[in-house]
Amino acid sequence: MSENEDGNEKEKEKEKEKENENVGGSAGEAGGGGPRRVSMTPGARRVLEAAGRLFYERGIHAVGVDLIAAEAGVTKKTLYDRFGAKEQIVVEYLADRDERWRAFLAPYLERARTPRSRILAVFDASRDWAERSLPRGCSMINAHAEISDPAHPAYAVITGQKVWMLALFTDLARSHAPRRATSLGRTLMLLHEGGLVAYGMGVFPGAIDHARQGAELLLRDAPHPPTT
Amino acid sequence: MSENEDGNEKEKEKEKEKENENVGGSAGEAGGGGPRRVSMTPGARRVLEAAGRLFYERGIHAVGVDLIAAEAGVTKKTLYDRFGAKEQIVVEYLADRDERWRAFLAPYLERARTPRSRILAVFDASRDWAERSLPRGCSMINAHAEISDPAHPAYAVITGQKVWMLALFTDLARSHAPRRATSLGRTLMLLHEGGLVAYGMGVFPGAIDHARQGAELLLRDAPHPPTT
DNA sequence: TCCATAGTAAACCGATCTGTATACTCACTC
DNA sequence: GAGTGAGTATACAGATCGGTTTACTATGGA
């Protein structure tokens, strides 16, 4: 363990990752706690794509590695060479979803210019995100229902995303009404989560838009403007 | 199918159900769409108890019938004689939870006397219910994450409970503010669902109480009183 | 030419999955 | 005392689970 000139090898690896579509990493980089552990070879990418689709549609426990490998068009050998265990695929799946969501959300926040509109922009982003890729509700909530053990490496990804969202709402709330930022942030979080759940279960149509209406009501109510 | 004097047999069955703690069934009876299909013998009761506990703690797909039978102290033969299939145990599990919740909620609603306090009583009941038996969040939401097929017989139980809750909130909202009952009922539903999710995932402490605060704000805001 | 990387193909492991079968016991009742 | 309902004990079926192994191929630098 003394004679590894990693400097040389790193250069090679970096050059090979020309097709890696990293999203800059401006506001991201908190995908799951650490850097990606697996080298995303073409086969690994197809595995992750297939696993993500199957996990979300049928549930994590209901999908076996044989099916994932078959859908990805790779053998189980390749799958285990890349990921080592199904558990790791689950972690990558959730971290990937989280990363994508934050990248999707970012331009919505950047476009909005007032604190109020930035808060509402989160709901707009969620609605658009849900309509295009969340027919069965939030991936994190669904995964949490299946992963009971807090020691599971995916658990941190799940709770991490929710904590991040709460911090985001609280930060945005602070800009709008500093005096009640904590409380307002939490209420926004509840409306948002409720919207996601109600949307995923089809309780009533337009659940996320309705959550946005609820948020508007909250913001109109005692907005603590510049003291007039 | 002609010679069954059910009048005689019914009496016997009813006498045997002395230990059955049916809660009158005033507002209930919508447990899952139909009457219980399985005869709840002592063995069956133990199966349902064990399955309920295991399903909730570890997830439905993660628990096998062998484990359920072992935990219940019955053989798989008994289990299959009573329930026929694991699927049916899942249905009974969810219908049972739903029934218990409605029975738990009823006295909270009866004690409250104003429309406003009746709405808040739902959140009070949920907080108490969650603290005593929902460390991992709402059973229905968790089950929905695992059961993707709408044709699954448990699906109707899941969505049925949420629809019932929405109807309850809407009814209560109608007594408080008839003009905006639909919208208010939906927002209350979102806050409530959000509270359940946030509580189950431990996003921040006292999530259901905070949802109640959000509801209070909603009710204070434009309460549409008797026109003054 | 050599060699590491990434992959295919296919068999195999022990364990577990849902579900069924046979054979028997016990308690209660008509 | 025969019959019935509820249960035990145990073995087994066929499939699938996560995971491993051996043998081989294609590719693209150094």
Can you tell me about this structure?
The structure is a homodimer of 228-residue chains. Chain A is mostly helical and 228 residues long. The first copy, chain A, has two domains: 39-84, Homeodomain-like (Arc Repressor Mutant, subunit A, Orthogonal Bundle); 86-223, Orthogonal Bundle (Tetracycline Repressor, domain 2). Chain A is 68% helix and 0% strand. The longest helix of chain A has 26 residues, at 86-111. Chain A starts with 5 loop residues before the first helix and ends in an 8-residue tail after the last helix. Residues 1-33 and 224-228 of chain A have low confidence and may be disordered. The interface between A and B is large, with 45 and 45 residues. Chain A binds a DNA duplex (30 and 30 nucleotides) through residues 12, 41-43, 64-66, 74-78, 80-82, 85-86.
Number of H- or I-type helical stretches of chain A: 10
- Uncertain spans of chain A, ≥5 residues at pLDDT below 50? 1-33, 224-228
Mean pLDDT of chain A: 84
Q: What characteristic shape of chain A results from the CA principal axes?
A: elongated
Helix content of chain A: 55-70%
Assembly context of the chains: homodimer
Q: Can you tell me the CATH topology of the largest domain in chain A?
A: Tetracycline Repressor, domain 2
Pair with the biggest interface: A-B, 45 and 45 residues
Q: Output the structural class of chain A.
A: mainly alpha
Number of strands of chain A: 0
Radius of gyration of chain A: 20 Å
